[in-house]
Design a protein that fits this description.
The chain is α/β, with parallel strands linked by helices. It contains 20 helices and 17 strands. The strands form five sheets. An eight-stranded parallel β-barrel has the order 4-5-8-11-12-13-14-15, surrounded by six helices. Strands 3-9-10 form a three-stranded antiparallel beta sheet. Helix 2 (43-75) packs across helix 6, helix 7 packs parallel to helix 9 (278-284) and helix 12 packs parallel to helix 13 (393-404). The chain starts with 15 loop residues before the first strand and ends in a 14-residue tail after the last helix. Residues 179-429 form the Malate synthase TIM barrel domain.
Length: 568
């Protein structure tokens, strides 16, 4: 724990109690009071978050303004590319801090929301790393976020358990567990249940601040071998955003009195502008970096979003946009070369398949796809890969171990110098393929079902034998929006049908009928399918494209307690 006597002088400040939580000056907690949450939302922890917010809010606002400015340029016809002003960083000879020994072997990582049973199963799964997610796999309701913090604290101190009454089973941690990484939300998402100086807090500073404050000491002792905590950082578009994270880490280390460079983070390269900033992002996080990861679903979403005003860059059906497409393969290869040149991990993409228990043939076919994908990754030079389900871990582990042998990673052995010749054109090349009515239907069906689950508290949703998170819904939405905007021809069906509002309206109606049939009348009535349909349809038909589906939908899950309500 931090030395509260020396930290921030919080204890000497005038005390005021709001809705049951003991809060420092300028902080207002609007979420439901709960005794468990109060152990997380302590006065000193909130002071730590408030200090981060006050120090960095203007930097964050400026970075978001820069995102909007870049979007304006792309919408006027510009293309993203390498920044001439930072050529010296790309061409310079420098490396990141040596990889912390506790996490040199990351050959298979499992990901999932910060839900109690999930955390136990993932840490026990046999994977090398578990990425516990406050971002795209979590619906950011007050309950989910605060319970997630409670769960992580219990996981780090080793006391976490879960009683599954339905199965009459108690879940506990094994002796051997995965290393824990935590993914906070992106810079753009607010936390509307915590106000600091009258403004919603920045979501990621709440996620990072509360987790770091309560867990850094225990984590470094039990998991990090003197390093840590470890993080994944999402949705960045530019190295200036990485620079803010680096400063946040510096500030946190200083406040905690731990060595600089203790915190380590892997950045997801999941936006198109960021692929041109990989060296610069690693450079800004030099002392805190532990590599980059291919966030490939979000990357495809970002490709559509970046080129929303470029009718010559329409994507084919999303199922056709895999890693064999030239622009996707180029992104993966440049990421490997960049990371290994700078001495850090190059992590591969997600295997989203879920074991199909009632159909062995279909299950084997799905596993075969996973094996092929992972073999391609390890042969390309990736140091590890992601799986969404514990059932995939043995297959992924086997492929990486067979190809890497006893080595912990491929940082020194797979330099991929051939990728040095990749150009802006390679990274932007138009994907090949066709558009079909089934593509439009699948986007609509998956988008609505994901959003319905999200509105009712689930951010990680099994749909059609795949574990979907917000990225899938985002691709579905932006692709529908773009096809509608440009009235594209569904050229893969041989019928020459054009996508219009009328056609889309009909597709939505028919897919809602299909969803009701698939999930059953009872679940359909109880679930928020109609609300989800309204939001999704509005987003697909809006004159201007919203940046994030989750930003718009967030207002539907914010629940403020009435002002002045008493302690529960």
């Amino acid at each position: 724990m931090m030395d509260h006597g020396t930290y921030g002088g919080a204890s000497s400040m005038p005390r005021k109690t709001v809705m049951g939580y003991d809060v420092p000056e300028g902080v207002d907690v609007r979420g439901r009071y709960d005794e468990e949450f109060a152990k997380i939302l302590t006065r000193d922890a909130l002071q730590f978050v408030a200090d981060l917010q006050r120090e960095f809010r203007n930097h964050i606002k400026y970075a978001m303004e820069c995102r909007r400015e870049a979007k304006r340029r792309y919408n006027e016809g510009a293309l993203p590319g390498f920044d001439p002003a930072t050529t010296y960083i790309r061409e310079g000879e420098w490396t990141c801090a040596p990889v912390s020994p506790a996490i040199s072997d990351r050959r298979v990582e499992i990901t999932g929301p910060v839900e109690r049973k999930m955390i136990i199963n993932a840490l026990n799964s046999g994977a090398k790393v578990f990425m516990a997610d406050f971002e795209d796999a979590l619906s950011p309701s007050w309950e989910n976020l605060m319970r997630g913090q409670v769960n992580l604290k219990d996981a780090v101190d080793g006391s976490i358990s879960f009683q599954d009454k339905a199965r009459n089973r108690v879940y506990k941690l094994n002796d051997q567990i995965a290393k824990l990484f935590v993914r906070p939300r992106g810079w753009h998402l607010p936390e509307a249940h915590i106000l600091i100086d009258g403004e919603p807090a920045t979501g990621c500073l709440v996620d990072f601040g509360l987790y770091f404050y309560h867990n850094y000491a225990a984590f470094r002792r039990t998991q990090g071998a003197g390093f840590g905590p470890f993080f994944y950082l999402p949705k960045m578009e530019n190295s200036r955003e990485a620079k803010i994270w680096n400063s946040v880490f510096d500030r946190a280390e200083k406040k905690a009195g731990i060595e600089r460079g203790s915190i380590r983070a892997t950045v997801l390269i999941e936006t198109l502008p960021a692929v041109f900033q990989m060296d610069e992002i690693l450079y800004e996080l030099k002392d805190h970096s532990v590599g980059l990861n291919c966030g490939r679903w979000d990357y495809i979403f970002s490709y559509v979003k970046t080129f929303q005003a470029h009718p010559d860059r329409l994507l084919p059906d999303r199922v056709q946009v895999g890693m064999t497409q030239h622009f996707m393969r180029s992104y993966s290869e440049l990421l490997i070369r960049t990371c290994h040149r700078r001495g850090v991990h190059a992590m591969g993409g997600m295997a989203a398949q879920i074991p199909i228990r009632d159909d062995p043939a279909a299950n084997e076919a799905a596993l075969d796809l996973v094996r092929k994908d992972k073999l391609r990754e390890v042969k390309a030079g990736h140091d590890g890969t992601w799986a969404a389900h514990p059932g995939l871990i043995p297959a992924c582990m086997e492929i990486f171990t067979n190809n890497m042998g006893h080595a912990s990673n491929q940082i020194q052995t797979m330099k991929r110098e051939d990728a040095a010749t990749l150009t802006e054109e390679d990274l932007l090349q138009r994907p090949r393929g066709v558009r079909t009515m089934e593509g439009l239907r699948l986007n609509t069906r998956v988008g609505i079902q994901y959003l319905a689950a999200w509105l009712t508290g689930s951010g990680s949703v099994p749909l059609y034998n795949l574990m979907e998170d917000a990225a899938t819904a985002e691709i579905s939405r932006v692709q529908n929006w773009q096809w509608l905007k440009y009235g594209v021809e569904l050229d893969g069906d041989g019928l020459g049908v054009k996508v219009t509002k009328e056609l889309f309206g009909r597709v939505v109606e028919e897919e809602m009928v299909r969803i009701e049939r698939e999930v059953g009348k009872e679940k359909f009535k109880k679930g928020m399918y109609k609300e989800a349909c309204k939001i999704f349809t509005r987003q697909c038909t809006a004159p201007t494209l919203d940046d994030f589906l989750t930003l718009d939908a967030y207002n539907h899950i914010v629940t403020h307690r009435p002002k002045g309500s008493s302690r529960l």
